[in-house]
Amino acid sequence: MPNLTGGLAAVEALRAEGVQVVFGLIGSAAMELFDGLYGSSDIRYVGVRDERSGTHMADGYARASGKAGVIIAGQNGPGATNLVTGLAQAKAAYSPVVALAGHLSSGHLYRDAFQEVDQEALVKPITKKVWTVPNTARVPEILQDGFRTAQSPRCGPVQINLPRDVLAGTADFESIQASNVSQMTAAPAGNAKCVESAAALLATAQRPLIIAGGGIKNTGAHQKVLKLAEAISAPVALSPGHGDALPFDHELNAGQVGPRGNPIASNLAKKADVILALGTRLGFNTTFYSYDNINPDAKIIHVELEATAIGRYFPATVGIWGDAGTVSSQLMTSVRDLSLNAEATNWAKQFIADRKAFLEARDNIPDSQSTAIQPASLFKALRDAAPRETMYTLDAGTLCLQATDALNFWDPPSLFTPLDYGLVGFSFACGLGVKLAKPERPVISLMGDGGFAMTMAELSTAVSNEINTVTVIMNNQCWGAEKAYQRDFFNGRYIGADLSNPPYDKVAEQFGAKGFRVERIEQLSAALDTALTCGKPAVIDVQVDPSALYSFRRDSFKHRQASSK
Questions:
Q1: 102: which of 30, 118, 268, 465 fits an S-S bond (Cβ 3.0–4.6 Å)?
Q2: CA 57 to chain CA centroid, nearest Å
Q3: 351/232 Cα distance (integer angstroms)
């Protein structure tokens, strides 16, 4: 390589990693880096309106593509601090986001310089690792290390701080190499003796259940799990936020489990005598860490790539450190030679019947044309109208939480949520990143009216870059979760719960997008069909019944239940 500035060296490092899309917001601290991207034909730069939402875009891109998502915060201080929420979200999702942050000049450190903040200390708790590049010559080396760290198991976000003088300086580079993450050792298999013990337990099970999580979804290992499930007659429940780990139409797909899942899957967890947990921590959203949501007498086989997660919340009869998909194939090989408990077949048949009845009841929505739009009616209309290959992004909040197991996910991956971070203001921006990763598939982003207001400026990003997603705003004019808690546990003493919103369909039009307003549920199908084919980003403002509120976390207010009656 010839003599390069640090900014050009950083771009060459991105190029070596095969980066095709970079999100960012320009700032004076990183001008050499942005200048290095000027005129690039192989790296697309997507300028955003806020570093937080840009990080959500990089997060969505990473999850949908299986590659690292890159966000550049061009300004030190405020630009870097705006990354924090997005990086914390990416860490909760084990999403490989690489954040490049401008930093003040090395000679100005610790002098209370303009926009100075300790950017390493700031993000250390919410990233896998953070670096500040000490000199120009080391820019490619540290970017390579950053990509390697972000994409190696378990994946997660990293941040690389690039001081002004480092980007402006020059150095000679013999070559700039990629991290070659794809050439790393194959995903680890489980210990053979542990696999044999687990297979023996599954063979004796009368009521076997598989709970599959991100370790299956993120590796695309659903076929391996389904072969095993069919062999041992085990329904497969899915951890919340990973309802797309299996294709919806497989008869053993139970849907999402736990306090926020559907009753069929949740009851399976309460009754199963052997539970095979594949690539899931059995964490908060799946269990609330409580035996109220999982059979205390069940024998648990816990398969995890993160060794510290095995048996952390519930003791494991057999713990297997390894890749969940690889271990599924090992278990399949082992159970072939074993005699299986005949009762498991009856268990599976009863589940299939129960699941069929549940889905039929879910679709039996009364005619509501003359009444306010109810969430259940909205979700049914989406199930009926959305194309099979749709990818969904969701926010937090009660309406989106109800949607997680009320939509059908056919082609993994199809669902992107805030997961355990429970973030409002995530979905629309995430959807833009998902669409850039998978432009051939339709993307529908569901949000509440409050969450959309947080990030609606990114309509400018969507229009400018022709990122044609459809955002469905479930508009109930309030912060729904909190208003439900105030209604149910604070005697209706509402404060800060109600919202005054602009007509979001008109707002979308002002940005140059397409806007639709839906006041009756029968209008949704036509609006969605037009939105998906209009050739522009689209916003559908759905007027949802403001009284359709639900308190999800009733357990959090047990101390108030007596006083509220």
A1: 30
A2: 11
A3: 14
Q: Which CATH fold topology does 192-358 show?
A: Rossmann fold (3.40.50)
Domain boundaries, the chain: 3-183, 192-358, 366-555
The secondary structure of 371-394 as a DSSP string is SPBPHHHHHHHHHHHS-TT-EEEE
Within 258-397, residue ranges assigned H as helices are 263-271, 284-287, 324-335, 343-363, 375-385
CB 178 within 8 A of CB 143: no
Q: Which two tokens stand for residue 23?
A: 């999100």
228: Cβ–Cβ under 8 A, 6 or more apart, which residues? Answer: 210, 234, 328, 329, 331, 332, 335
| Average pLDDT of every residue of the chain | 94
CA torsion angle 551 553 555 561 (round to 10): -30
CATH of the domain spanning 3-183, picked from 2.40.10.340, 3.40.50.970, 3.80.10.10, 3.30.1300.20 = 3.40.50.970
pTM of the predicted model, to two decimals?
Answer: 0.95
Q: Do domains 3-183 and 192-358 have the same CATH topology?
A: yes
Confidence of residue 185 (pLDDT cuts 50, 70, 90): low
pLDDT tens digit sequence for 36-91: 999 999 999 999 999 999 999 999 999 999 999 999 999 999 999 999 999 999 99
**Tokens at residue 67, please?**
């590659």
The residues with which 103 forms a beta bridge, in sequence order, are 163
3-state secondary structure 453-484: HHHHHHHHHHHHCCCCCEEEEEECCECHHHHH
CATH superfamily of 366-555: Thiamin diphosphate (ThDP)-binding fold, Pyr/PP domains (3.40.50.970)
Give per-residue pLDDT as tens, 347-389: 999 999 999 999 999 999 876 655 789 999 999 999 999 999 9
